[in-house]
Amino acid sequence: MTNSARIITASLDDTFPLSRLPAELLAESENLHPARRQQWRAGRALLAEALFAFSGQEMLPEMQISARGKPSFTDPSLPHFSLSHSVNSLQLVLCAAGETGGDVEQIRPRARYLDVARQAFSETEFCWLTEQENPLNAFWQLWCLREAWLKQQAGSVWQMERIRLDPAAGQFSPESATDSKLWWAAGETVMSAMALPACVTTCEEYIFDARNGSIIPQLIPRIPRRWSCYSLA
């Protein structure tokens, strides 16, 4: 399925089974602050459940960290992935076609967000943002798209200037050459974004469901959201 990606959403309030996580990973997480430990374990448990559902992996496969800090599986036949969380929202993107990046943001007030936008975004983006009926939602759209692309490129939030967006035209201009498209979707409370290889044309969506008390949680297909794309300028 090289022309498709999968996105799985969950809540940090869900009960995540840890039985598919290797003992050494669980031991490693014991050194983390409790809140960070919950996020860390939830993300990897969600990744493990997805790999079991789609690839039949009984345990979370071995991973490696690149020189720039981007995690991946050591087995090249397994998909690329990106994990993100915001407040209690958790998102996983899987893509067999190539490197991916994802970001999820709960749409929430942010102190002095216009000042942040003026510093982090281009003049074109800032002017577009201030002209929108809901500037806060527009801010989170631009922020989320940047985060997704930077994660795909193994960048950091401190490198926002590496990409420029033209929301009116639905285009983006990266600092370096890339073969990507940016996807975004907005809900009532959550903004999601993905940076995917340009060959990807569809996205399957799932919800992690462990609410029914089942010993085996499920990935439930959901009706796809309305995704919009940014292409290279």
Describe this protein with a few key phrases.
233 residues, alpha+beta, Ribosomal Protein L22, Chain A, six-stranded mixed β-sheet, five-stranded mixed β-sheet, 5 helices, 13 strands, 27% helix, 32% strand
Please summarize what this structure is:
The chain has 233 residues and is α+β, with helices and mostly antiparallel strands.
Question: Structural class of the secondary elements?
Answer: alpha+beta
CATH architecture: Alpha-Beta Complex
Return residue spans where pLDDT drops below 50 for at least 5 consecutive residues.
Answer: none
- The rough form would be described as globular
Description:
With 233 residues, the protein is α+β, with helices and mostly antiparallel strands. It has five helices and 13 strands. Strand 2 and strand 3 form a beta hairpin. The chain has one domain: 4'-phosphopantetheinyl transferase domain (Ribosomal Protein L22, Chain A, Alpha-Beta Complex).
